[in-house]
Structures are given as structure tokens and as C-alpha cells.
């Protein structure tokens, strides 16, 4: 069987060329391609694809800018995302944010005096992970030494997880939340005023998914009123967060500038995913992280 013809765009980056070739493919011009590895934005993607193209690999785990493009592409073209490829790094960052928030590290770092507080600990608490996909599963593994009870929430409630239609119960039951669900029309402002009102006064919310999952106005109000313990955000709405946004001045907010997945490890992990999917494509096997046109992720 001839090696599959793979186009890498918008530029033939060296680590992706190596990954394609290691996976058994050969790098070709777009006109010759039967598959595409795309490491650019949706805006730069070709308006028309060669008739032979049957698969497109995207570099991102979150693909909300691509949804309409994917739905408009002929059904014979399979898109795959990078869901799960970056799970370890993002889950590690989520745990760091959770520990920093719960243990009061952000407040101590800002303080200019020796002022001790009786901060809670993570051990023995209940942590809800909303969106128990690749990142969520990796975070569950990282939480194992901490003696926490994990409530894993998924859309379907598969494999013993809690279905999303029971979230009202979870808002009240958990001590802390990690938001790791995909950004869709159905998850926009999933954490809003009602959800925040149901949470415990010591609750910390960590968001490593997309900023749109949390209503920023409702969050600012809840933080100012001290209705929750705090929020640790690697993603925000809007993003980048404007310098004059009230969240920057909120002592109960801990913000990192969308750095949960560093570029150096992103290149490495994307290459690993490309290598494996090229192997699968060449063998006619199911690809990792296929995108559902219906759900948009």
C-alpha cells in the first residue's frame, strides 16, 4: 500500500513533517493531498479542498471557530481535533490553580505583611469536574493522592459519571469545581448567577476550558459579595482580559493568561498525535478524536 499523501499547512513545520513521515506518510502539496494536517487558524484554511481529501487533523482541542466550516465540508471528509493530546499539561495546571486557590496562596503572594489565615485544605473535600474528557480523566488521576471525592460530570452520564442535566445537584454538593467542558452553544455561561448562588461559601472554581463557560458579570458579582471562595481562571471572557477588567482587582480571583498548555509541549504532543493518526489513517483504522458535526466537538 502506498504511503498516504499528507499536506501540512499553512507551513510545513519541521516537527510535523517528521511526525507525518514517522507515521508512514509522505508530505505533499495541497493539490496532491488525501489528508491535511492544519497547524493554522480557520481563517487561513483553504476555501476548497481537493476531491481526494478524506481527513483533516486540527491542532487545537477546542474547535469552536471551526464548527461552521466543518459542517459545511462534504460528509466524506473526517475532521479530527487534538482532544486529549494536551491533557497532562492542562490537568497539571488545573491542579496547580486549585491548590493555589484553596490554600490561599494567591492572597499570601499579594500580601505585604505577615498575616496568617486558617485556610482550608484540599484533602477530604469533594471536587466536581465538569467535562470528564481527556483533561478531566487526567485530573482525576492527579487528584488520587489527595483523598478527595470526585464528581465527574459528562453530557451523557456514561461510565458512572453524572449527566449534565443533574448539574443543579452538583452545584450544591461539591466543595470545588474544575470546568473542563467544550465550548458550545449549550455550555455558554454554564456557570451563571444561579449556579454561583447554589455553591458553598468556600468554593473555588477553576476554569481551564474556555472563557465562555462562565458568565463574567455574574462571577464578578459573586466574588465581590464573597458568596464563593474564589475563582482561578486560565481562560476568560473576553480574552485577552482587558487591563481595566474588574477581575484583575478582585482579591479572590487568580488569573493566568491561557498558559495551561505551553507552546513547547504543545508542539511535542501535537506531533505525537499526528504520528499516531497518520499510522491509523494509513492502516484504515479509526482515528483519534474524531469531531462530531452534530455536537461541534
TrEMBL record:
Alphabetic keyword roster: NAD, Oxidoreductase
Keyword NAD: yes
Record carries keyword Transferase: no
Pfam family for this entry, one: 2-Hacid_dh_C
Gene Ontology MF term list: NAD binding; oxidoreductase activity
Domain of life: Bacteria
Ranges for domain D-isomer specific 2-hydroxyacid dehydrogenase NAD-binding: 97-260
Transmembrane parts of this sequence: none
Protein name as it appears in the record: D-3-phosphoglycerate dehydrogenase
Organism: Solirubrobacter pauli
Amino acid at each position: 500500500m502506498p504511503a498516504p499523501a499528507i499536506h501540512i499547512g499553512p507551513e510545513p513545520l519541521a516537527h510535523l513533517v517528521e511526525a507525518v513521515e514517522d507515521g508512514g506518510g509522505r508530505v505533499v502539496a495541497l493539490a496532491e493531498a488525501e489528508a491535511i494536517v492544519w497547524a493554522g487558524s480557520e481563517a487561513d484554511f483553504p476555501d476548497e479542498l481537493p476531491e481526494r481529501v478524506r481527513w483533516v487533523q486540527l491542532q487545537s482541542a477546542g474547535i469552536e471557530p471551526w464548527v461552521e466550516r466543518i459542517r459545511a465540508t462534504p460528509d466524506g471528509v473526517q475532521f479530527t481535533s487534538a482532544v486529549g493530546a494536551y491533557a497532562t499539561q492542562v490537568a497539571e495546571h488545573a491542579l496547580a490553580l486549585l491548590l493555589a486557590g484553596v490554600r490561599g496562596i494567591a492572597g499570601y503572594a499579594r500580601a505585604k505583611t505577615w498575616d496568617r489565615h486558617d485556610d482550608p485544605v484540599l484533602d477530604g473535600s469533594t471536587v466536581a469536574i465538569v467535562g470528564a474528557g481527556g483533561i478531566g480523566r487526567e485530573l482525576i488521576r492527579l487528584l488520587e493522592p489527595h483523598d478527595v471525592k470526585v464528581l465527574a460530570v459528562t453530557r451523557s452520564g456514561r461510565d458512572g459519571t453524572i449527566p449534565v442535566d443533574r448539574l443543579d445537584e452538583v452545584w450544591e454538593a461539591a466543595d470545588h469545581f474544575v470546568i473542563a467542558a467544550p465550548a458550545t452553544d449549550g455550555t455558554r455561561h454554564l456557570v451563571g448567577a444561579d449556579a454561583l448562588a447554589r455553591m458553598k461559601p468556600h468554593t473555588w472554581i477553576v476554569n481551564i476550558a474556555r472563557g465562555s463557560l462562565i458568565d463574567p458579570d455574574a462571577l464578578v458579582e459573586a466574588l465581590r459579595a464573597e458568596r464563593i471562595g474564589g475563582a482561578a481562571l486560565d481562560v476568560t471572557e473576553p480574552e485577552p482580559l482587558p487591563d481595566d477588567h474588574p477581575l484583575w482587582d478582585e482579591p479572590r480571583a487568580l488569573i493566568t493568561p491561557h498558559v495551561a498548555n505551553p507552546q513547547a509541549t504543545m508542539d511535542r504532543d501535537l506531533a505525537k498525535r499526528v504520528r499516531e493518526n497518520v499510522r491509523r489513517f494509513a492502516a484504515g483504522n479509526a482515528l483519534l478524536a474524531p469531531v462530531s458535526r452534530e455536537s461541534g466537538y
